[in-house]
Design goal:
The chain has about 575 residues and is an alpha+beta fold. The protein is about 35% helix and about 20% strand. Strand 5 and strand 6 form a beta hairpin. The chain is elongated and about 95 Å long. It starts with a helix and ends in an 11-residue tail after the last helix.
Amino acid sequence: MDRRVIGAILLMMAIAVVPSFFLKTPPKPVAAVAPSAASPSVGPSVAALPSPVLSAVTARTAGDSVDAPTVLAEDTVLIRTPLVTYGLSTRGARLVQAAIATYPSLALADSGTPADLVPAGSSLFGAKLVTGRDTLPLDRWDFVPSATAVDATTGPASVTFTGSRDGVVVTLTYTVPADDYRLDVAGTITGLGAPGATLLLDLGHGIRETEKDVAENQRAAALVTKPVVGDAERHDFSSLDSAETQTYDGQFEWVAMKSKYFVTAVFAFDSTKGRLSGARMTAVGEDEERRAPSTTSLSVQADGAIAFGAYVGPMEYKRLTAIGHDFDDVNPYGWPGFRGMIRFFSTPVRWLLLQMHETANVPWGLALVLFGVLIRLLLWPLNQKAMRSSMEMQAIQPMIQDLQAKYKNDPQKLSQKQMELFKEHKVNPLGGCLPMLLPWPVMLALFFVFQNTIELRGAPFLWLPDLSMKDPFFIVPVLMGASMWATMKIGAIGTPPNDQQKMMTTIMPVMMTVMFSSFASGLNLYYTVQNIVSIPQQWLLLKERRRRGLVAAVAAKTPPPTVSKKK
């Protein structure tokens, strides 16, 4: 988990809880390289093949003899849809291009061109066929396409690739819809003889760099596997040392490569058509140049049939959930052990923001402002209760201090007398804590929403060029810190003098400003709105303290009046 998040959470919790007790008393950017349709496949080596078939691949590789057919010039078949342009190479029938028309690349070297998810020198779905003791490198075969270009702008379209060597004939058909980023791949293999073959699918070595913040994007780079039974498991590139290899055994419904906002995945939902079995990832390079060539295996049916699905596109919430099989968990909110709680809040928060933007046509920045106001208004009664509880505790502080002096050598008796005092004056000593903690799950949920929601990517607001990235001028973090200081300062008026409280009022806003300056500007905007909207409530409570005489009592250093609850 990101250390910045841990630090932020600790600071948030400290701000939420500690004051109530006191009141009682750029990395170097990687230049993006334009994709090349003729880039050779970086297929998995024998040492990198998944464990279920590793032993079978140690034998000789067939189809590479000196009698192999003359190598043809590699060409690329383009499939155009309104959303994406796919490029399929005639060498290996591999996917070598996936240019997303609806999302421009934000990488510094790309100048706003469509985000191409396939890195130069990599490819997707290149295959090796393991049968008996032989391995057929289908990713190096020359295939003949049924068309040189395919138009899928008005409806589904298909292209079929056919290749043959040494009596083995392979056909692969790619079918794409016009309104989605999914692909269906089906084919047949004849001439193998005995059944029992396994197809090794190349998942590439990661997703091409598409973001301005390279370090943030690399932190999200991972291989994700979804077992047939159980939850999705994320395997970060950064978790492996350079040249380290990890093997993940099991039967999978899907295996995916992800970055911060995009994903490439292979599906095998129908067990009668074969399951994905095992996956392997090898780390290559260091830091922002880290890549992880990965593979998975798919069983070939007894009749030689091949079938799998794929998704190559953005991690849009609606599309991921529409696929089912927990595919939306490819981009998990939170971390293991806490995802359930975070998702409980993040899912409705994300849904509401999407509805405000898409249905009500509210700009993203304004939607965040309105959302911040709405949350503060909903929590107004709870915050009111928490603040009044603090006032009630403040009013009986002299009595508590008398008890502490009287029973300082008898902790058990002191506890008993304090509970009697609380009961007599109808004061709940914990009444101010829970209402103050309730907003933080929403804050944590918003942190992950802004860190991972592609719909917010590139969304501008006022001077902010991108709500999913930090404020380049640091204006919002400063406003957030200033508004936090104002709320804490007003809330401290009329409370007994406390050096620690004064220090927190000064230091905590500064620390939070520094911490939040590297977070998404949208999160800072939401938090700033929350603070500003809470100032009137703090002011109203200050007037109530004055009516009760608490402020005057503190100023005169005299015992506060008896608690008189407002009806």
